[in-house]
Every structure is written in structure tokens, then in C-alpha cells.
Amino acid sequence: MTRRKRIAERRSAAYRGAFTLVELLVVIAIIGVLIGLLLPAVQTARESARRSSCQNNLKQIGLAILNHESTRKAYPAGFTYYGSDEPCWGWGTFILPFMEQADLYARLSPDKRKLSAVCGASATPEDTAALQTKIAQLRCPSDQSPDLRDKAVFAFPTAASSLLIGGSVALAVSSYPGIAGTQWLSGTDTTYPTGYAAPYKHFDCGGMFFGFFDSTGSSPGRGPLGVRMNEVIDGTSKTIMVGERHQKGFAATWVGAGRVSDYGPGGTCATLARSNFNQNWDIYDLYTSDNRGKGTSSPHDNGVQYLFADGAVAFVSDGMPNTLLQQLGNRADRNTPDPARY
Fold first, then answer.
1. Nearest CA to 293 among 243, 249, 254?
2. C-alpha–C-alpha distance, residues 133 and 147, integer Å
3. Which of 50, 79, 96, 202 has the most CB atoms around it within 10 Å of its CB?
């Protein structure tokens, strides 16, 4: 074989082993199509995992609340009202000892001091660190809210200069507000058992969580005890107790309620949610609506996950009529819609 022929054969073999530019572009295009097909599936799988994690969070919250009820013979109060327009400890703080956060509860000492004395301008570094503690069980992994509620710490501000109404410390965010019901009940209503002070019937908004008046006006007094089991007349499996709220809905905080001038639904700003708003409905203008952040909303598509008073968790579709959502949020209106239908 001549030298020229051997060189030609080597060149031919080299050409056969290489890609042409057209072939390379075709391969890249195929890879791009495959990625485009697989990416939504991967994202769906990830969201499904995050939604399951969120559901587990709600179950853990439910277990803590039920342990509170079993130990103290009452669900936790939505918040404790002291008789003045000030921040008040909320249900998220009251269940800390029942969710492996006893040390944090002891640091905050809500049974010995008022929240307004802890979160003000004179807050100590230790108190500030406690109030800003991020609790994994209280954060949905799909919630993109910042770790701290650093705007309108408690209540909706009336001007840009009053972003820290109710306190000077930005508080840790929670993805899960308690359900406060819809509105004040009539003072003459006799649906519920007696046993509380007279104002109880006037400011009960029908939900599992609302405020309870502290008769001392200066100390925790009666303690963070709320609704009793026998007051859930519609049944614990038919009454929603905790919902979701994320960045779109002006995230909640587990610490408490802010600038509470009463202990009815008007105190729902930061730690509670009313069930008379449509799910995922919100007002975006921070300075013109006091309804911002008082409903439920979810980063999960097409609905909101709720914890029921028996500890079960269910996904309620955005297709559920608001009137039925209100009924689920009222523990004693004798209306028990089935969320599984929506």
C-alpha cells in the first residue's frame, strides 16, 4: 500500500468519526426539546413535595394544638387582649411548649409579661432574637415571604412613616394564620355555653380563634385559654382551624396580634385570618386598604390547605363558594359543607 493511500484512509476514518455542524445542531435541538418536556414534570414533582411538606407542617401544628387542648382543657386563645390598643401574644406563642419549643417559650415568658413590653423600642437583643426565631414547622417551603415581617410589623399602616405601627421589632414570619371566623356575633346570642365573662358573647366571631379579655389589664391574668371542645358544635371534623397565607397575602407572624383595640375580628391583622374573604383574594395597595393580609392565600395552585379542629388537613379548592368557606370557618352555625366536593 502506497504512503499516499494510507494517508487517505486515515483521513477518511477521521471524517467518519466526527459530527458535522448540522448533526451537532440537531442533537442540541433534541436535548433542548427533552429538557423542555422534562422541566415541567420536575417542577411539578418539586411542588408536590413542597405541598406534602406544608401538609405535614399543618399536621404538626394540629398535634400541638390538640395537645394544648388535652392538657389545658381548651384550645389556645387567638390572642390575649389587655384592654388597651397594644400588641398581644397570639396562639402561635401559646403552643410553643407543645411543639418542642419550650425553651423559646421560656425566653419569651408570655405568662409573665406583655408583648408590648417585649417588642418595643427598648427591646433587648435577647428578646429581639427570640421574637425573630424562624420555626421550620411554621413555614411552608413554597412560601417566598422574607423571614421577618419588616413592613407594618403588626397592623396596616396609614402612612409610609408608620411602617412599624405596634412595635419596633420586625417579627418572625409564619405561613399559617389561625381562623377567626367572620364577624362579631350578637350580644344576645345564646348558641354557646355560658361560663365566660359577659363580653365573651359580644366579641366571639364564630371561629376557632379570637381574642380573650384579660380582666387585670396589666398581666396575663386568665391565661391563654380559648374555645372549649364542647363549643365546637358543628364538629371538629367540619370546622377549619388554621389556614395558609404567603407573601401575596401579606405574611402572618406566629408571635401575636398587633395594635388590638378589641378582642374580636378587628384584631386579626397579623396572626389570624377571617374566613369571609375569598381564598387568594388580596388588596395590594399597602396604604389604602385595611383588609390587606386578613384572609387566606396559598403558594400552591388552585386552592388552600387547611387544618381542621380534629387535626386533619384538607385541600380546599378556590372553586368553593365563599359562603361555604364562611360556614367551614364557623364552629357553631350548624352548617357543615363537605370540602371534598370542591
1. 249
2. 9
3. 79
Nearest to 73 by CA among 204, 227, 241, 178: 227
Here the cell at position 277 is 374573604
The residues, ordered by sequence, that sit 6+ positions from 59 with a Cβ below 8 Å of its Cβ are: 307, 311, 313
Q: Classify 256 as helix, strand or coil.
A: strand
Residue 115 CA: distances (Å) to CA of 106, 109, 169, 266: 14, 9, 11, 18
d(CA 180, CA 227): 11
Residues 6+ apart with CB under 8 A from 278: 295, 318, 322, 325
**How many Å apart are CA 315 and CA 336, to the nearest integer?**
16
Residue type, 211: G
Predicted confidence (pLDDT) at residue 97 exceeds the cutoff of 50: yes
Dist. CA 212–CA 195, nearest whole Å: 13
For the chain, the farthest-separated pair of C-alpha atoms sits apart, in whole angstroms, at 114
Does position 336 have pLDDT exceeding 90, yes or no? no
Residue with grid cell 371566623, as numbered in its chain: 181
Distances (CA, A) of 256 to 66, 119, 329: 19, 11, 20
For the chain, the domains span: 43-341
What is the per-residue pLDDT for 122?
78
Q: pTM (2 decimals)?
A: 0.78
Strands 252-253 and 171-174: antiparallel
